[in-house]
Design brief:
about 180 residues, mainly alpha, 3-stranded parallel sheet, 8 helices
Length: about 180
Protein backbone atom coordinates (compact mmCIF):
# COMPACT_ATOMS: atom_id res chain seq x y z
CA UNK A 1 0.00 0.00 0.00
CA UNK A 2 1.11 3.50 -0.70
CA UNK A 3 0.24 7.05 0.25
CA UNK A 4 -3.25 8.50 0.21
CA UNK A 5 -3.54 10.87 -2.77
CA UNK A 6 -6.39 13.39 -2.87
CA UNK A 7 -7.86 13.95 -6.33
CA UNK A 8 -9.23 17.47 -6.64
CA UNK A 9 -12.74 18.02 -7.94
CA UNK A 10 -12.45 19.56 -11.43
CA UNK A 11 -15.51 21.73 -10.76
CA UNK A 12 -13.81 23.36 -7.77
CA UNK A 13 -10.55 23.85 -9.63
CA UNK A 14 -12.25 25.82 -12.41
CA UNK A 15 -14.67 27.88 -10.29
CA UNK A 16 -12.60 31.08 -10.18
CA UNK A 17 -11.29 31.06 -13.73
CA UNK A 18 -11.47 34.49 -15.36
CA UNK A 19 -12.92 34.86 -18.83
CA UNK A 20 -10.70 35.94 -21.66
CA UNK A 21 -11.50 37.18 -25.12
CA UNK A 22 -14.55 35.26 -26.47
CA UNK A 23 -12.63 34.05 -29.53
CA UNK A 24 -9.84 32.72 -27.31
CA UNK A 25 -12.37 31.10 -24.96
CA UNK A 26 -14.10 29.45 -27.94
CA UNK A 27 -10.73 28.10 -29.06
CA UNK A 28 -9.90 26.87 -25.54
CA UNK A 29 -13.20 25.00 -25.24
CA UNK A 30 -12.93 23.48 -28.70
CA UNK A 31 -9.34 22.39 -28.01
CA UNK A 32 -10.34 20.89 -24.66
CA UNK A 33 -13.21 19.01 -26.29
CA UNK A 34 -10.84 17.69 -28.97
CA UNK A 35 -8.34 16.66 -26.28
CA UNK A 36 -11.11 14.92 -24.32
CA UNK A 37 -12.32 13.16 -27.46
CA UNK A 38 -8.80 11.97 -28.26
CA UNK A 39 -8.29 10.69 -24.72
CA UNK A 40 -11.62 8.86 -24.80
CA UNK A 41 -10.80 7.30 -28.19
CA UNK A 42 -7.46 6.13 -26.80
CA UNK A 43 -9.21 4.59 -23.78
CA UNK A 44 -11.63 2.77 -26.10
CA UNK A 45 -8.66 1.36 -28.02
CA UNK A 46 -6.83 0.20 -24.91
CA UNK A 47 -9.71 -1.34 -22.98
CA UNK A 48 -10.74 -4.92 -23.46
CA UNK A 49 -13.93 -4.51 -21.43
CA UNK A 50 -17.13 -4.33 -23.49
CA UNK A 51 -18.94 -2.28 -20.84
CA UNK A 52 -16.12 0.28 -20.73
CA UNK A 53 -16.07 0.54 -24.52
CA UNK A 54 -19.85 1.10 -24.57
CA UNK A 55 -19.69 3.84 -21.92
CA UNK A 56 -16.83 5.61 -23.67
CA UNK A 57 -18.39 5.16 -27.12
CA UNK A 58 -21.53 6.97 -25.98
CA UNK A 59 -19.39 9.80 -24.64
CA UNK A 60 -17.48 10.06 -27.92
CA UNK A 61 -20.78 10.33 -29.81
CA UNK A 62 -21.96 13.07 -27.47
CA UNK A 63 -18.73 15.05 -27.87
CA UNK A 64 -18.98 14.77 -31.66
CA UNK A 65 -22.44 16.36 -31.64
CA UNK A 66 -22.06 20.14 -32.19
CA UNK A 67 -25.34 20.72 -30.33
CA UNK A 68 -23.65 19.70 -27.07
CA UNK A 69 -21.27 22.68 -27.10
CA UNK A 70 -23.66 25.23 -28.62
CA UNK A 71 -25.06 26.55 -25.29
CA UNK A 72 -21.52 26.89 -23.92
CA UNK A 73 -20.39 28.84 -26.98
CA UNK A 74 -23.35 31.19 -26.57
CA UNK A 75 -22.46 31.70 -22.88
CA UNK A 76 -18.86 32.47 -23.86
CA UNK A 77 -20.16 35.11 -26.29
CA UNK A 78 -22.00 36.55 -23.27
CA UNK A 79 -18.75 36.92 -21.31
CA UNK A 80 -18.35 33.58 -19.53
CA UNK A 81 -15.06 31.70 -19.34
CA UNK A 82 -14.81 28.43 -21.26
CA UNK A 83 -14.94 26.46 -18.00
CA UNK A 84 -17.91 28.33 -16.54
CA UNK A 85 -19.80 28.12 -19.84
CA UNK A 86 -19.09 24.39 -20.13
CA UNK A 87 -20.24 23.73 -16.56
CA UNK A 88 -23.46 25.71 -17.09
CA UNK A 89 -24.24 24.04 -20.42
CA UNK A 90 -23.57 20.56 -19.07
CA UNK A 91 -25.65 21.22 -15.94
CA UNK A 92 -28.64 21.95 -18.16
CA UNK A 93 -28.07 18.78 -20.22
CA UNK A 94 -27.55 16.65 -17.12
CA UNK A 95 -30.81 17.96 -15.64
CA UNK A 96 -32.69 17.04 -18.84
CA UNK A 97 -31.33 13.49 -18.76
CA UNK A 98 -32.01 13.07 -15.02
CA UNK A 99 -35.60 14.27 -15.44
CA UNK A 100 -36.39 11.91 -18.34
CA UNK A 101 -38.96 9.18 -17.70
CA UNK A 102 -36.76 6.63 -19.47
CA UNK A 103 -34.33 4.85 -17.10
CA UNK A 104 -31.80 4.56 -19.95
CA UNK A 105 -31.56 8.35 -20.28
CA UNK A 106 -31.50 8.82 -16.52
CA UNK A 107 -28.51 6.48 -16.33
CA UNK A 108 -26.77 8.37 -19.14
CA UNK A 109 -26.75 11.52 -17.00
CA UNK A 110 -23.67 10.01 -15.31
CA UNK A 111 -21.96 9.90 -18.71
CA UNK A 112 -22.62 13.61 -19.12
CA UNK A 113 -21.10 14.25 -15.69
CA UNK A 114 -18.08 12.29 -16.92
CA UNK A 115 -17.86 14.43 -20.07
CA UNK A 116 -18.18 17.61 -18.02
CA UNK A 117 -15.24 16.53 -15.85
CA UNK A 118 -13.05 15.29 -18.69
CA UNK A 119 -13.38 18.57 -20.60
CA UNK A 120 -12.74 20.57 -17.41
CA UNK A 121 -9.59 18.55 -16.78
CA UNK A 122 -8.46 19.25 -20.34
CA UNK A 123 -9.18 22.97 -19.89
CA UNK A 124 -7.08 22.95 -16.72
CA UNK A 125 -4.25 21.11 -18.45
CA UNK A 126 -4.53 18.23 -15.97
CA UNK A 127 -5.38 15.51 -18.46
CA UNK A 128 -1.79 14.35 -18.85
CA UNK A 129 -1.07 14.24 -15.12
CA UNK A 130 -3.66 11.57 -14.31
CA UNK A 131 -1.04 8.83 -14.47
CA UNK A 132 1.63 10.62 -12.40
CA UNK A 133 0.87 8.91 -9.09
CA UNK A 134 3.12 7.10 -6.62
CA UNK A 135 3.15 3.32 -6.83
CA UNK A 136 0.58 1.75 -4.52
CA UNK A 137 -1.29 5.04 -4.02
CA UNK A 138 -4.79 4.99 -2.61
CA UNK A 139 -6.87 7.54 -4.49
CA UNK A 140 -9.22 9.67 -2.37
CA UNK A 141 -12.01 11.54 -4.12
CA UNK A 142 -15.65 12.44 -3.75
CA UNK A 143 -16.26 10.11 -6.69
CA UNK A 144 -14.61 8.97 -9.90
CA UNK A 145 -16.15 9.06 -13.33
CA UNK A 146 -15.77 5.99 -15.56
CA UNK A 147 -13.33 7.62 -17.97
CA UNK A 148 -11.17 8.93 -15.12
CA UNK A 149 -11.21 5.49 -13.47
CA UNK A 150 -10.10 3.91 -16.77
CA UNK A 151 -7.32 6.49 -17.14
CA UNK A 152 -5.41 5.07 -14.19
CA UNK A 153 -3.06 2.09 -14.27
CA UNK A 154 -4.71 0.06 -11.52
CA UNK A 155 -1.92 -2.53 -11.56
CA UNK A 156 0.25 0.22 -10.04
CA UNK A 157 -2.30 1.61 -7.57
CA UNK A 158 -3.48 0.28 -4.22
CA UNK A 159 -7.14 1.26 -4.47
CA UNK A 160 -9.64 4.07 -4.15
CA UNK A 161 -11.61 5.57 -1.28
CA UNK A 162 -14.68 7.38 -2.58
CA UNK A 163 -17.13 9.41 -0.49
CA UNK A 164 -19.99 9.19 -3.01
CA UNK A 165 -21.25 6.81 -5.65
CA UNK A 166 -22.86 3.45 -5.10
CA UNK A 167 -22.37 -0.24 -5.68
CA UNK A 168 -24.41 -0.12 -8.91
CA UNK A 169 -22.43 2.71 -10.53
CA UNK A 170 -20.37 2.22 -13.66
CA UNK A 171 -17.18 2.81 -11.66
CA UNK A 172 -18.14 0.14 -9.11
CA UNK A 173 -18.82 -2.32 -11.91
CA UNK A 174 -15.52 -1.47 -13.62
CA UNK A 175 -13.65 -1.82 -10.32
CA UNK A 176 -15.21 -5.23 -9.65
CA UNK A 177 -14.29 -6.36 -13.15
CA UNK A 178 -10.66 -5.46 -12.43
CA UNK A 179 -10.66 -7.22 -9.08
Amino acid sequence: WGPLVWLADPLTAQALEAAGDPAAEHARLEAAMAMASGALAELVETTDEAMAAEILGFQLEMLADPALAEPALVAIDGGASAAAAWVEAMAAQIAVFEADDDAYFQARAADLVDLRERVLLALAGNEASLGDLPSGAILRAADLTPSRFLSFDWSELGGAALAEGNAASHVAMLARARG
